[in-house]
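Q: what sequence does this backbone want?
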């Protein structure tokens, strides 16, 4: 017999029964699962170890980047010409207000 949605009413009760049986089977399966007594402590310890390792790797990475930036900066400064430039040359000897008369 068809209901208002055009589906077979007998088929719907079969689905309901299947869903009910499946729900009961999953509940029985879930009821039989018991966590190990130290599962939380072990999982937390693993998480803390991973967190410490992640922080250590980040600190080492920051240290390496800082060291490389410092070395590159020192290398660039060392590449500058050693002779004094035009601005710092001592030639000319004239200063403001001491020119010829």
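A:
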């Amino acid at each position: 017999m068809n209901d208002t949605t055009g589906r077979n009413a007998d088929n719907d009760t079969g689905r309901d029964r299947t869903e009910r049986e499946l729900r009961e089977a999953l509940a029985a399966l879930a009821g039989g699962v018991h966590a190990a007594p130290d599962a939380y402590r072990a999982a937390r310890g693993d998480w803390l170890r991973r967190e410490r390792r992640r922080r250590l790797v980040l600190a080492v990475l920051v240290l390496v980047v800082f060291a490389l930036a410092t070395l590159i900066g020192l290398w660039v400064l060392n590449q500058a010409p050693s002779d004094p430039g035009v601005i710092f040359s001592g030639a000319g000897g004239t200063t403001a207000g001491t020119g010829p008369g």
